[in-house]
Structure formats: C-alpha cells, structure tokens
Fold each of these.
Amino acid sequence: MNRFILTSAALFITLGTVLLLLPFNKLHTSVSRPQQALPVLLHQPGWELSNDNIVDALHSLPLTMPIRRVEWNEPAMSIDLIVSAPDTKLSEMYENIADLLSFSFSSTINVNQVKLRLVAEDKWLGTKHLLLAADVRREDWDSGLNGELKRTGEAPLSDLIKQRFHVIETILWKNQFGVLQNG
C-alpha cells in the first residue's frame, strides 16, 4: 500500500510541475520566434529581404504579370516575369517593372541590384522567348525615373530609362511592340 501511495504522490507532483511550467514554455517560444520569417503585409523602408521572406514579399506586390522564377543572392535579386498573352499592353509591363523596382529599392535595405527579364511564354508550343532584360542598380534608380517608367504608357522606353536601367530589348520585343527603329 505504501508503494502505491508513494508512486501516486510522485506522479501527481510530476504532473503538477509540468502544468505549472507550460505557460513559461509558451512565453519563451513566442519571444524567441524569428521575426524576419513573418509574412509581409506592408512594405516599410528599412526592411530586409531574405530567402525566408522573399515569397511573401513578392506575393504581396500588386503585380498583374505572373512570376516565372525568382532568385535571391544578396544583394542581387533575379526575377523573370511572364508575358503570356501577345496582346499584353506595354503600360502593364512597365507598371509591373516599376512596382517591382520601387519595392526593391524604396522598401528594402539590402537589395542593391535587380536583374529582370520579361519572357514570352507560349503554352501551346511550350516555348519561351526573351523579350526584354534589365540590370537595375540601386545607385542608378530614383523615384522620378520610376514614375516616368510608369507614365510611359504604350510608347517606347526613353533613352534615359534604357541607359540608367541597363535595358536590352530583343528583336522580338521590337517587332512585337512596334518599336523597331529605322536605320
């Protein structure tokens, strides 16, 4: 009988101790949770992009073009945007590029370069073709130039934007969007 009482008492003391310590465990795990892995709802200046939060960050942007590929090699982000319809407007593409650049350079502290490609994708044939590429660096970007890009509409890119954003237009881009220069 003494063994049963002794075993029961030890069991109740152990269970009581565990129940008393549970609130402290919850407190400890909530304090030590990594903060950079939380979803991004608002992009505020001084935010640090990482492999842990890049998907959430890009998903929260108001992009209308799908992302085909993204790669993060600090301080450079490489991203491919898909142009899936041949009647996609230049203004839509320019706005997507401007939104992506604005996020990268206005809202983050550690993105110093964005390597961007617009890729035409034909789902029927399963082919992909490069239309336009840009290599934009933080020191070459400014909000005024970004605003000009957004306001370009259906016109060709200005020489200033092409120069500062290191834009390369393929022959396919020039043929598709009627910006092939004579000469």
Amino acid sequence: MSSLLNKSYILSLSLLGSLGIMGLIYNVLNSITHNSLVLSSPIDNLIPLVPAMSIPYLGWYPYIFLAMAYLCWKDRQLYFRTLLSMNISVAVCYLIYFYFQTTVPRPIVTGLSWDHQMLNWIYGNDKPFNCFPSIHSLYSFLVMRASWNSSKIRFRTKVIFSMCSLTIIMSTFMIKQHVIYDALGAILLGEAVFILILSSVKVHKIVRSKRYERYS
C-alpha cells in the first residue's frame, strides 16, 4: 500500500491529467459539422440497439483511470509509454476530426426505462461527431495492448483488462455512438503509435549501449 502513496507514484499518476487537457480540444471539434460523412457498413445495420450497454460505455471513464493507475503501479516504464501513445494517438484523432469529420445516425429513443433515459443522456451530452477514430476504442485498446506487453502483470489480470476493453468497444456499436470502422481505425492507429514508441525506445537503448562501449 505504501508504494501507492509514495511521491513518485502520485507524481507519475498525475500525468494522466494530460489526457484531460487533451480532452478539452474534443469539445471544440465536436461542434464542427461541415461535410460530415457516414462510414457505416452493412454489419452495423445488423447490430441491435441495446440501451443497457450505456453502462460499460460510461464505465469507460473510471476504467481507463483505474487501469492506468494499476499499470503505473505494476510497470512504470510501460505506463509512461502507454500514456505517451494515448496522447500522440488522440492528437492524430483530432487532426482527422478537423479534416475528415464523420457522424453516426442515431435512432430516436422514446422509452422511459432507466436504460433508455441513460442513453438519451449520453446523446444529449455528446454530439454525433468526432466518430472516426473512436477515442473510447483507442484508449480501451491501448490499455489492453499494454497489459499483454508487460511481463509484470498476471495472466488473469490481462484477461480482465481484455474483457473490459472489448466490452466497452462493443458498447460503442450497440448504443449507436460509433460504427465498426471507427473502432478498426482506432485499433490500427493505437497499434501503430504503440509499436513506434516501443521501437524508438529499443533503438535508443541500442544506441546508448554502443556509445557506452565506445567510450568505456
């Protein structure tokens, strides 16, 4: 427990605030509606609307924080690389939103049950833009990807991360916030940036090692 309360851990975890700062840009771009495209596929038309999937969709917010807090505790270096991957990837997302804005047609939800009301609340607080790539899918994938890349995280925990991440990604389809291409784009983007950062770290270590050998 003391390791969770030490200064180094708290300072490292505070860097998660960078995602919140980046999130401020999202709201600005979410109002840009010109020339919005629809990327839906025939598969999306087969996916039913399940308002109850609003729960994992909203659960994404605490999930990402808790998952990153755990990663920061178990594997600090990988935490920093994952956080950097998130920030770089979401910056790319914002560029895409600005130049290639997409939208998802939303169904009219008329029910009065709790799940219908929750879904209407989501619709009321998030305009149907900034869809491709999906940031929900992006962060969920990177958390799952990082867990499988770490030798310090138990297999059972990796499975839990994977189940949670995949459920959240599926929820974006089932409440009609995103289409399949939005998730695929996010996964490809996240994977590319994640590999690029890990490769850069390996190259840096090799170069530093050779310099050390040269002057030792």
